[in-house]
Amino acid sequence: MAPSAVPRAVATTAQNDSDAAKLAVWKQALYERVQESGRENDAFSQDDLIDLGVIPNGDKMLLIRVVQALSDDKLFVTMRDASNNILWKWRDAQEAHKYKQLDDEQAMVYSLIDDSGGDGIWSQTLQRRLNMHDSVLKTALKHLQTKGLIAPFKNVEHPNKKMYIKASIQPSDRATGGPWYTDQNLDEAFIEDLQRVVFDYVKNQSSYVSKHSGGARTQTPSKGVVKGNPDRGKKRDAREMNEPPAKAVKTSTASAPREAVLLPLPAGYTGYPTVRDIARLLSASGITNNTILSESDVKKLVDVLVWDNLLEPIRVAGKIGYRVSRVSKQSTDVWAGREDPTGREGQPESYLSPYTEAPCGRCPVFDLCEEGGPVGPSNCEYFKKWLGME
Amino acid sequence: MLVTKHAAELCALLVNDLYGELPSRILIALLTKGRSTIPQLVQQTSLNTRHLRNGLGVLFHQNLLYARTEPGSKTTTYEANPDACYNLIRSGKILEVLEQRFGAAERDLVQTLMLLGHARIQDLGQAFSTRAPQANGETNGSHSMLIGSESRLRSVLARLLQAEIVEAVRADTFRNPAEVLDEYKQEMAKASPGDRISNKDKIVNDEKAAERYIAFRDNGKAIKRQLDQTRGSYAKRRKLQNGHSTNGDHIDDDDAPHLNPNIIVRVNYEKCLVELRNHRLVAFASDSIGETTASVYRTVLDLATAHMSRCRIDPLAAVKEPEPTPITVTTLDIFDHLDEGIDVARGIGKVSGDKIDTSSVEKVKMEVPQSDDESDIESDDDGPVPNGRSNTRPRGNTVQHNDEDPFSESDNETRTKGERPSRVTFDDSSTNRTARIEQMRQHLLLLKDSKHRFIRHCGTQGRGQWTVDFRLLMARFRDAEMDAVIEQSFGRHGLRLTRILRERGKLDEKMLYSSALMKKGDVQGKMLAMQMAGLVDIQEVPRDTNRLANRTLFFWHFDGEKTQAQLLDDIYKAMLRCMQTLQVERHKERNILSFVERKDVQGKEEEVMTAEHYNKYNNHLEVQDRLLGQVMRLDDMVSVLRDF
């Protein structure tokens, strides 16, 4: 209970002394009861307050007096809901104390800043809501600042706006941008590096490194596969004996011997890393030194990689894991920590479109290109270069 | 089909390239002016009637025209068939795919048919009989052996007819199908009594018209049905031949069917497109999973599309034609047709058996998924799990995935210790067969589990039934093609932004940069660039009636259909430019080229030409290969975006 509330109640007129004392008791009881109900941000209607059972016999007149007294002490905040019913909210005693040292204008300004919470409020919004004179608002703000009640700060969503926030609270994640922001700026290098780490990790976890060189069908496996007669049970025509063996299917013709290649893992593999696994890796590795990444932050990071077509989600056994896209085309090198931007080693390999590989797909004057026009097939520089005729 | 400017130019250029300038000029007139009669064409092209008739004759013979003679009047109207014109570019590809699928003789026949446009069976016989003894200096020594006899021709033709690669031509084949449908609709409307037709009647009429249209369309297949009855269906025969191309020329000769020599036949491009689509999908699977898996997929597709006569539902008959019931194939079927040269043990990594969740792998999806959302990822409903199979499946089948050198054996041993029931194998062919089926099944499961969902596990009979949802699969394929273009034109960030918009719909800018983890300025720059290119657009939603900028919400959105249409036209243009560049090159080297064309030079260019000229000629050939190769690759994209 606020210490100041009691002396003030005592200081009312003499004949109401006992009355005032009673009022003070009820005040305290009601305030405590409301606090106990534990609903920090909940508003109480008149009926709610009576239902709390503090006011005897549901005496509405008495309730009004008690609530009025609490409001005077700034311990109750009055508000209206959509259908214009009056509601009350309780306020912390220390906060109430702060309010009491302010004059009217300052209190109005402070209450707006207080309401805006962790997101802060723009000075223009303050002015529009309060309809105050510019200079009055400015002095009020200055006063509040010198008292250490409010602080100016920058919101990443509106970097150019002058915002104020209560000095006692931390700006919300939305205002600071969460872990992705350093000094109100999006830390792109940090994000990019983390993405590479995540990509490498998922790639390693979702593929099988085969060091076996050679193409897909040139060598006979050492054991196990086709011994004996593979054709048993097949309906074969006797005439087939005269024929040469069936032609190889074109797609599987072997390419030149490669070094290590990545192979997909069998369907139903349960070891694909989940968001939680990735988050654990990041926190264990300590790359994020001071910043703490929550699981939802990591999810955001992974989502972006999915949108970039680098990873793909896969649901196995009721949980969503992630695996790398186009696994057999990816290189076995790591992507993270490469300085050289031109070297493509380790970078994710994405599907190349034939359209953009030829000059037309990347032509800056493609819209103008017309036979007989300023640029056209007969004088195309890009085609010349592409065909190696320079 | 409506044609854009670039598509029309491309068609004309292709015709010009193959059949000369005269038909090309007529085609341009037809494409730009629409349906015309000969007098109208005379006016538009300033050609005289004789030339015009010659040119029209060529176009007509190559099936590049629609023609219609009104029964009352005796005038004939002509209309260009842009689809057929475009298909000219695919001839080479189709031949290649057919050779792989059927064999050299079939390819030869189709090639001849392509050259002739359409031909009577009798004439075909003559063409081959005159060609056979010549075989003059063909590099392909076996050429003359391919189709040597009349009966051989008939059997090859019958095969192609049954596979729907070749279809019969009638007089009304040359009518525009849309027009035919319209006519049926009008007839229906006339036939129904009363002045006004209720909505319900109209629907019934439309359906009847569509029914008649389907009958009209499938008329050309009558001969196939006839053959199916007398010779047994195509798939059955294929099975008997064990999926092998008939390379020997003696197989079918004995039972060569009797074909009416007066029937006129031509290539059915719609079915060819189905074959091309299979080819393309296999390449796509190879790209996203791996080569071995792709070769298994090839077998699945061959089986699943054996009776599929077109890639998409004919839009004209859509009211009556239901979505084709998906064709299912069983694991055993696939296995019986699998090329035994394919080593199915390769291409999949090894993991220990306890890391595999059998129940989610073997989940069966009976229904065709309605849309292409991520429901598979989000939803929690577990479909029926075929308990019979999952129990008997050897969990440690990883043993068979043995593509490692023997040295890794010990490592392998420790990884899969204990769980290897098949370790104690009897060297028995049936065990091998079981193991091989199991390995192949692994590839099928991998295809099923891919994010593109190449196949769907739809039943448990015959060790699992599989089907392909082509409509959805192709939609994903189209998206993948589009993604690649976007990524390479606007970078990874551009792709990211469009993917976010596609997934979430219309978005405020703030949402966009917070989910993309990008700087506001970068997002704005990227979005602006993409807006200029027509990929994304902005929608304004005013918050009040004043429409002030600061009281308005701005939402970005991505228009996939528009982007696709635009991309398609850009690709036409790019193809056109490639062809034109080739023409420019040919013009530049015209002296050398005309020299090379001489009869006494052909075949011995190196000896006759000077070194300098020979080098130039070779360079030109290289340039030509490069340009034509690029055109073919662009055609792959057109196919995916438009036809498949």
UniProtKB/TrEMBL annotation, chain A:
Q: Which domain of life is it from?
A: Eukaryota
CC terms in the record's Gene Ontology section: RNA polymerase III complex
Q: Name one GO biological process term.
A: transcription by RNA polymerase III
Q: Which Pfam families match?
A: RNA_pol_Rpc34 (PF05158)
Sequence segments annotated as region (Disordered): 210-253
Sorted UniProt keywords = DNA-directed RNA polymerase, Nucleus, Transcription
The name this protein carries in UniProt is: DNA-directed RNA polymerase III subunit RPC6
From TrEMBL, chain B:
Family membership, please give it.
Belongs to the RNA polymerase beta chain family.
* UniProt source species: Clonostachys chloroleuca
Q: Which GO terms describe its molecular function?
A: single-stranded DNA binding
Where does this protein have compositionally biased stretches of type Acidic residues?
370-383
Which Gene Ontology BP terms does the record give? DNA-templated transcription
Q: Where is this region: Disordered?
A: 236-256, 352-434
Instruction: Report the residue ranges that make up the RNA polymerase III subunit RPC82-related helix-turn-helix domain in this protein.
Output: 9-64
Listed A to Z, the keywords are: DNA-directed RNA polymerase, Nucleus, Transcription
For this entry, the protein name equals DNA-directed RNA polymerase III subunit RPC3
